[in-house]
Amino acid sequence: MKEATMKGFAGKVAVVTGASGDIGLAIARELAAGGAAVWCVDVRPPAQGIEGEEGLRYAELDITDSAAVTAFFERVRAEGGPATLVVNAAGGPGSVRTPVDEVTDEAWHRVLTLNLTGTFHCCREAVRHLKAAGLPGSIVNISSGAGRTYSRTGVQAYAAAKAGVIGLTRQLARELGPHGIRVNCVAPGLIVSDGTREEIGRLGDENLATHLSGVSMGRLGEAEDMVAPVVFFLDDAAGYVTGQTISADGGSIMLG
Ligand SMILES: NC(=O)c1ccc[n+]([C@@H]2O[C@H](COP(=O)([O-])OP(=O)(O)OC[C@H]3O[C@@H](n4cnc5c(N)ncnc54)[C@H](O)[C@@H]3O)[C@@H](O)[C@H]2O)c1
Prior knowledge:
Order of helices and strands: EHEEHEHEHHEEHEHE
Bound molecules: nicotinamide-adenine-dinucleotide
Helix content: 40-55%
CATH class: Alpha Beta
Distance between the termini: 37 Å
Strand content: 15-25%
Number of helices: 7
Structural class: alpha/beta
CATH topology: Rossmann fold
Radius of gyration: 18 Å
Largest sheet: 7 strands, parallel
Strand order of the largest sheet: 3-2-1-4-5-6-9
Number of domains: 1
CATH architecture: 3-Layer(aba) Sandwich
CATH superfamily: NAD(P)-binding Rossmann-like Domain
């Protein structure tokens, strides 16, 4: 009988940041279902509670704190081996719809630091351990449609940071290919989550209909919709795919 193409994650160690959020948690649960031991990392515990769920373990970590990220990846190595699967899903836009001439330095840096520098911290530490152990690995960064075109809610720093995540992904893929480490990116469209529920509620019927008219699949995304694109990149079966960004947005942005 032919072996299945997708290899699954049995015996692998994974780190998912932002795992108390809807998208991160959906990804973490899928990896655990595929056999991985998953570190669920966030600044707040998961609202739904993951105690007792096989394969999932919560660790508090602020990805903007470089020293804490270094210590965390060392802990992962010491307690079960280096993470060969890493998903950088922690992020968010901060306050929306501020005209650029009213954006403070603090607001700009906060969003850049969370979405771009935090992702860099985690990539760097994951790579340090993979290289030291001589292991191949797969990293998936979560960008946004805002990073491919523009932020729907007009957050300049978010659009810049998420475009930066795509650039970082390409650059790391190029550098790390010879080490067997693949780095790819998923760019969600508007997805119903803790981070967006309020904003979606504020849209109103007319604005929602306008938004959906630009979505080929004609509906908002769910966190579960983000799982398959991430899993595809992570799986060893995608061993010849690196440096790529997939939009998971119901067919909103279509790039050649
Ligand atoms: N939901 C959407 O419409 C959408 C669209 C495009 C991109 N994204 C991106 O997808 C990712 C997941 O978003 P989501 O919709 O699940 O949002 P969410 O708000 O539900 O989850 C984000 C998680 O990141 C965590 N977090 C924030 N700061 C952190 C820090 N310093 N260290 C560690 N964790 C931190 C939050 O506590 C939260 O649990 C984010 O990177 C977001 O920018 C979301």
